[in-house]
């Protein structure tokens, strides 16, 4: 017997999902001399073979259409020391790159200095999902800090968190 259909209240939905800890990334790209990027906590691995990852972005994002046009992006996995970077790239309409040190990845995407790791991707697929887009990227290059002592930047219950080990 099917459950009765009830509307999910957006604030309750957001609160429930806020109890799921997630890492913080900045998705970056470069198009016609313009640096692009936005903070993203909806990032995850999809496949080992081929190596695929995914992120979700609001359908009305100002940054993503240009990233789509570039056809490539980098995932910068932020460290616990990069709360300022996360906040800066979460802003709309600001110069997100003000004071940010970066270098080009093999595909030409900006890699933010101090990130724990980065993944260099080409757009593999995109799907509309409600008020978001699900973007799948094929990883073409990556950087793994083998002796990384820094902790990841986490988000839980509406606040930045660090691991206590």
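Q: What amino acid sequence fits the structure above?
A:
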């Amino acid at each position: 017997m099917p459950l009765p259909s009830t509307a999910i209240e957006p604030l309750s939905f957001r609160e429930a999902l806020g109890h799921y800890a997630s890492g913080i990334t900045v998705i970056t790209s470069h198009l016609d001399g313009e640096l692009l990027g936005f903070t993203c906590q909806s990032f995850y691995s999809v496949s080992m073979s081929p190596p695929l990852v995914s992120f979700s972005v609001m359908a009305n994002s100002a940054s993503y259409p240009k990233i789509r046009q570039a056809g490539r992006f980098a995932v910068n996995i932020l460290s616990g020391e990069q709360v300022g970077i996360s906040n800066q790239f979460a802003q709309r309409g600001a110069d997100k790159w003000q004071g940010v040190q970066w270098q080009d990845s093999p595909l030409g995407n900006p890699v933010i200095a101090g990130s724990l790791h980065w993944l260099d991707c080409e757009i593999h697929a995109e799907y509309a999902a409600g008020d978001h887009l699900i973007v799948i990227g094929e990883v073409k290059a990556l950087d793994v800090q083998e002796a990384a002592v820094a902790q990841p930047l986490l988000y839980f219950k509406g606040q930045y968190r660090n691991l206590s080990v």
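Q: And what stands out in the fold?
A: The CA atoms of residues 76 and 118 lie 5 Å apart.
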